[in-house]
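Incident review: delayed structure delivery

Summary: a single-chain prediction request sat in the queue longer than the usual turnaround. Root cause was a stuck worker, restarted by the on-call engineer. No data loss occurred. The affected request and its eventual output are reproduced below so the record is complete for anyone auditing the incident later.

Affected input:
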Amino acid sequence: MTQSASPWGLLTARGKVFAVLGVLLGVAGTFLGYEDVTRVGLALLLLPALVVLLLPRRPPQLTVSREVTPQRLTPEERGEVEVRFRNVGGRSAVYLAEEHLDYQLGDRPRYILPRMGTGEERRLRYTVRSRHRGAYSLGPIVLRQRDPFGLVFRTLQLTSRTELLVLPRVVSLGDERLRGSSRGSEGEMPQMIALHGEDDVSIRSYRDGDELRRVHWPATAHRGELMVRQEDRPARRRAVLLLDSRAAAHPGCGVHPSYEWAVSAVASVARHLVADGFVVHLLTDGTLRDGIAGHQVELGTLMDTLARAQPEEDSRLDRLTAAASSFTSGGVLLVAAVVAHDEGELRALASIRQPGSRALAFVLDPGKFGGGTTGDHPTGVLADAGWRTVTVGPHTEIAQAWVSLRSSALGRSA
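Output delivered after worker restart:
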């Protein structure tokens, strides 16, 4: 907890005027010999000083906790925040409390915090809503105390903070599965036990037509019926999602429309692929720094990561390209949301596609998002390298763009 320490700093403008006038009148009355003027001056000077002395010297010992319902919001969804104040010290005074919020969450709530005895608790509620995804801070809470004369104003700050996540917009991409073809359909072909080890062997009952050499005799003896090894195990299909976070590539400032489109597209594709049984990997600057880009990411964690993602000045597409290349040799599905900004970096990304594999890209045309003349950007570099692409702008529907990519993915493979 922080508070104003200087007595002069505690005075309001009115209190400072009282103090200055008191000194002037006291000095003038003394030199001119007017005792009544001197008394008035002393009264004006002593009044703010007395108020300062009567203010509680010890700050209140309050603990603050918050509970947000629901815990994760979506854009335009209202959430309710319950703030719990608990007094763990002596009796507190009356304060005007103000919660600090990001302006995108709405107006800062203000409320009167009544006196509380030791161990007492007060609960206050307010609502928040954001039009945009992101990680927002709730807090700190500022407590203000003013005397009845308006001469002294004290500010205390309760440093407790709580993070509120607003997840990206997610749209439905339909129920149709993304069928595989050739090498890019990882998981369509069964993998043999030798690739996984003995722990991945499954045992099942004998069926007509099973070879006797596959009988698992220990399990047969234990169960009292013929049991065979299930030596084939279908592999789960894998997908790598790449998000271009170069601040220089996304036109605009503040909220970048192209970046928000890309984040929403990646989030929508992730949910669609997870529902389709894919193992998903997320490639962003953040996941590379955290060292989790090479690991499977659960959908909830992925959404949280995308909620926090922001364009970065030092972001480079070649780093994401190098990370993605380690996956493409294994025949995974690669889906990228990339800005047609730098032809050299796009050519490097285009080159990692392996013959026979699938690589899909939402290519964001910066010209359509207000970053120059449409058509002046290398939007066809990926398509020339065999990627299945769709060029998008601010009014492109994500679902329609995905239908275009999905349809083209069923076509020829180079």
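Verification: The first helix runs from residue 7 to 10.
Action items: add queue-age alerting; document worker restart procedure.
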